[in-house]
Each structure stands twice: as structure tokens, then as C-alpha cells.
């Protein structure tokens, strides 16, 4: 049997060489090459990460923060270069989520569905 770490590195290489990752790299490079898009994207990411941190720490997100994030998101969606990057990121996120489900399947089979899933 192959070493699990060797398989993980093989998976990393497969991910790096995947069409979706190459598209993500290209999209990210295009955003970085456009000063206006880069500034807007950096601001969007900063706000997004700040809201996620607040949410994870149990802090209340204000209505003003929600409105600011929504307004910025609408602006970001209007920028074709950024919109393409965000769509590509979402596809990569789905791929990684699917891979995670596959990798953790033996644990789920061993322990059964998580408590949250049992309640649904």
C-alpha cells in the first residue's frame, strides 16, 4: 500500500495541474494586472474575511456591515474580471469540498453521520 502522504502529494499535483486550478490562476493574474480590479477585490476580500472572523467568534454582525458588504459585492459582480475569478473560486471550492467528502468517507462510515445531520 502506498504511503498516505505520497497519495496526498499526488492529489496536490493533480489539483495543481487541473483545468479548474489553471483557470483560477489565470483569473487571479488578470485581477492582479488590473489596478482598479485588484483594489476592489482586495477590499472585498478584507470585508469578507472580517465578517467571517466575526461570525466564527460569535460576534454580532451589524446591519451597516451587511449593507456595506452587499453593496461592495454588487460592485464586484459588475466587474467582469473579478466576477470570473469569484466564479472560478466557487468551482474550486466545490471540488475541494467533494474531495474532502471522499477522503473523510471512511470516518463517516465508522462513526456515522454527524449529530447535526442526525437531527435533520
Blueprint (SSEs and pairs):
Layout: H1 4-16, H2 19-33, H3 35-56, H4 63-78, H5 80-103, H6 105-111, H7 115-119
Helix pairs in contact: 2-5, 3-4
What can you see in these coordinates?
The protein has about 120 residues and is mainly α. It is about 85% helix and about 0% strand. It has 7 helices and no strands. The mean pLDDT is about 90.
Produce a short descriptive summary.
With 120 residues, the protein is an all-alpha fold. Helix content is 85%, strand content 0%.
Return Rg in Å. Answer: 19 Å
Q: Structural class of the helices, strands and pairings?
A: mainly alpha
Number of strands: 0
Largest sheet: none
Q: Helical proportion?
A: over 70%
> Uncertain segments of ≥5 residues (pLDDT<50)?
none
| Percentage of β-strand residues | under 5%
Morphology call? flat
Q: Roughly what is the average pLDDT, rounded to an integer? A: 91
Elements, N to C (H/E): HHHHHHH
Number of helices: 7
Distance between the termini: 38 Å
Descriptors for this entry?
single chain; about 120 residues; mainly alpha; about 0% strand; flat
Amino acid at each position: 500500500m502506498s504511503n498516505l502522504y505520497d497519495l496526498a502529494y499526488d492529489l496536490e499535483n493533480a489539483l495543481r495541474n487541473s483545468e479548474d486550478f489553471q483557470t483560477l490562476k489565470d483569473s487571479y493574474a488578470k485581477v492582479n494586472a488590473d489596478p482598479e480590479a485588484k483594489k476592489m477585490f482586495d477590499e472585498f476580500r478584507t470585508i469578507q474575511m472580517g465578517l467571517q472572523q466575526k461570525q466564527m467568534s460569535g460576534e454580532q454582525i451589524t446591519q451597516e456591515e451587511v449593507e456595506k458588504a452587499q453593496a461592495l459585492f454588487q460592485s464586484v459582480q459588475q466587474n467582469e474580471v473579478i466576477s470570473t475569478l469569484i466564479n472560478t473560486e466557487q468551482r474550486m471550492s466545490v471540488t475541494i469540498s467533494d474531495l474532502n467528502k471522499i477522503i473523510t468517507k471512511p470516518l463517516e462510515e465508522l462513526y456515522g453521520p454527524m449529530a447535526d445531520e442526525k437531527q435533520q
